[in-house]
Each structure stands twice: as C-alpha cells, then as structure tokens.
C-alpha cells in the first residue's frame, strides 16, 4: 500500500506540469523526502519482500529525478494514441496520462522496442491472450509460492543470520531463490494486470509483451542484464546518459542526421561502457534502498530486545551490502568482452558470440 501511495503522489506532482526549474527541483526534493521516510517505515513482515519493496521505492526515486528534473514528460513524451499534447489536457486527464506511462516505453515515443519480446501468440485474440495469461499466472505463482516457502524456513531470510554462515551451494541456491521469487511474483502480477486490461477492452494484446526477455539470449553477462532481465528499469537506469534516443519537445524522433550521430555513438566502446557503468550505479543505488529497509528492521529488533546504543546497532550495519555485486558487473562485462575478442583473433569458432 505504501508503494502505491508513493507512486500516486509522484504522478500527481508530475501531472501538475510545473514550469519553473526551482519549483520542479523543490517538488522533486519533496517527493524524494517522502520516499526516504517511507523506506524507514514500510514493512511486509518478510525480510526478502521488504528488500524487494525497498528496491521498488529506490526505483521511484530514480523516476522522480527522471520526470521532475531531467525531462518534462507532458511536453516531451507522446503516446501513439494521443490526439492532443498531454500538457493541454485537464488535470485529471493529465494524471491518468502520467499514470499510464509504460516503464518499458511500449507505444511511447521514448520506447526502445527492438529488445522487447512479443508474447507467444501468432495471431493474438483477447480470448487466447486471457488463456495464455491464466496459464502463465498458474505456473509462475507456483514458483513464487515455492520460493516464498523456502524463505520462511531459511534462517538467512527470517533472522539476522549472515549469508556467509551457510555453505557455498546453499548460497548459490539462495541467489537462485531470490531471482525466482522476483521473477515469479512480477510475472504473476504482470499477467493478472494484463488480463484485466485486455479483457476489459482497455488495451490490445500486443501492448502486453512478455515481461522478461528470452532466457536463451542470456548466454553472456551483458545480454543477461540488457536483453533478458532489465526490461522494466532500462529507461530509469540510463537517466544520466549518454542516451541513444532523443526527442524534441513534441516527443517526435530527431532527424536522420541525428540518428546517424547516435549510430556512431553506439559503436563507440567507450560510450558503451560509460552507459553500462551508469546503469549499474543506478541499479546499485536502487538495491541499496532495499538494504536500508533491512537495516531499519535490525535497528527495530535491537531497540525492542534491549536498550543497546546506536554504536552497538552500527555493528550490524548492512547498508551498502548489495552495492559491490552490481558495481562489479561492468568489470565482468569488460572481462567477458576481452575474452570474446581474444577468441575471435585466434580464429576460433565464434558460436553464438
């Protein structure tokens, strides 16, 4: 509920379409302050779900910066069904317009559709899409419940036990469980929402492609993150640029010459790694917000168990625990690319690479 309220508050502020830079910066600071306050108060009762809630709130902070500081969505974004610019609409319609912005950019002027995987239906009808969605919900909800059951009986997820306290195979299993829990839960919610939207004739089936990319494409570190996993956060993770896509104030693509410049930019490995590092810094920040929620749980436990000082609480600090994993991902991609280039220079069979 806290996440829904925070997102609604952000959408209300964006729908105001403030023109002054000072007011936009002030409103962004206000929204971010509300999100930070929510980080220290929101609870689900499960450590892993709290961590995922923190991640979602961290993503809201990135969205606040994107929509209130770096862009003017109502003037720069356009949906394919728009008949008039969004900033000319009444406030209620502007709010509904902002709340409908797809994080993946499907149908929007800022979308990158080349990496979005369509659903498995060749000629999708509403009935066939609803049937597909029900099958996906059943399978992925089973996965979600199985992994959630595992977290209820693993000390790492229900107590202050350290991840390092378990043997290496269990640590690998824990990572798989975390990914599967998020994958199963998000896919179930996604298709439940899709069934309602398509069944009520609000959206077409083509507007609801698969939430994740093909797993067969995830055969390198770069492709796992870029093509399979980061489908929903791609635009928020690249808010600090440089950007491959640019639009004018009417939300239309720039000229062909500009696209040519972007094409050459895309070929620059320095620019590619710069974008990659920016993306994983944003990802590390988002996951660190999950650390904050877990840390506040630890503080609450200490304050209820004893009158221990803040110095003693600090010995249990886990804020920043998630950061090294995501910050090191660009290093892994760099090593991976170096190995593939060496492989090609040796004249060996490239395979899928």
Describe it for me?
The chain is mostly helical and 353 residues long. The protein is 63% helix and 0% strand. The protein is globular, with a radius of gyration of 22 Å. Mean pLDDT is 82; it is low at 244-251, 253-265 and 307-315.
Structural key phrases:
353 residues; mainly alpha; globular
How would you briefly describe this protein structure?
The protein is mainly alpha-helical and 353 residues long. The chain is built from 15 helices and no strands.
Secondary-structure content class: mainly alpha
Query: In total, how many beta strands?
Result: 0
What shape does the CA trace take?
globular
Indicate the radius of gyration in whole angstroms: 22 Å
| Range of helix content | 55-70%
- Strand content range: under 5%
Q: Calculate the terminal CA-CA distance, rounded to whole Å.
A: 44 Å
What is the average of the pLDDT values? 82
Number of helices: 15
State the low-pLDDT regions, or none. 244-251, 253-265, 307-315
N-to-C series of helices and strands: HHHHHHHHHHHHHHH
Largest sheet: none
């Amino acid at each position: 509920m806290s996440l829904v309220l925070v997102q609604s508050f952000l959408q209300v502020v964006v729908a105001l379409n403030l023109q002054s830079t000072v007011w936009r910066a002030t409103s962004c600071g206000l929204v971010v302050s509300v999100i930070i306050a929510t980080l220290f108060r929101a609870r689900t009762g499960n450590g892993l779900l709290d961590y995922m809630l923190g991640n979602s709130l961290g993503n809201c902070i990135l969205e606040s910066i994107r929509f209130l500081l770096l862009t003017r969505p109502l003037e720069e974004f356009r949906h394919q069904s728009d008949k008039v610019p969004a900033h000319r609409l009444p406030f209620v319609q502007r709010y509904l317009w902002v709340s409908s912005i797809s994080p993946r950019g499907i149908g929007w002027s800022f979308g990158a559709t080349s990496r979005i995987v369509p659903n498995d239906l060749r000629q999708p009808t509403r009935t066939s899409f609803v049937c597909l969605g029900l099958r996906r919900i059943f399978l992925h909800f089973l996965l979600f419940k199985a992994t959630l059951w595992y977290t209820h009986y693993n000390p790492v997820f229900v107590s202050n036990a350290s991840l390092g306290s378990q043997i290496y195979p269990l640590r690998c299993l824990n990572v798989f469980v975390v990914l599967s829990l998020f994958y199963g839960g998000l896919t179930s919610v996604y298709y439940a929402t899709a069934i309602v939207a398509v069944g009520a004739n609000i959206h077409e089936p083509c507007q609801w492609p698969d939430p994740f990319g093909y797993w067969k494409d995830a055969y390198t570190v770069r492709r796992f993150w870029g093509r399979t996993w980061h489908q929903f956060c791609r635009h928020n993770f690249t808010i600090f640029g440089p950007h491959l896509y640019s639009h004018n104030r009417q939300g239309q693509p720039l000229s062909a010459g500009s696209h040519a410049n972007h094409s050459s930019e895309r070929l620059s490995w320095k620019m590619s790694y710069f974008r990659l590092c920016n993306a994983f810094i944003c990802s590390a920040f988002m996951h660190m917000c999950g650390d904050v929620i877990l840390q506040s749980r630890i503080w609450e436990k200490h304050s209820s168990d004893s009158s221990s000082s803040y110095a003693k609480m600090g010995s249990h600090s886990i804020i920043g625990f998630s950061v090294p994993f995501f910050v090191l991902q660009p290093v892994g991609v760099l090593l991976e690319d170096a190995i593939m280039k060496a492989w090609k220079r040796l004249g060996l069979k490239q395979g899928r690479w």
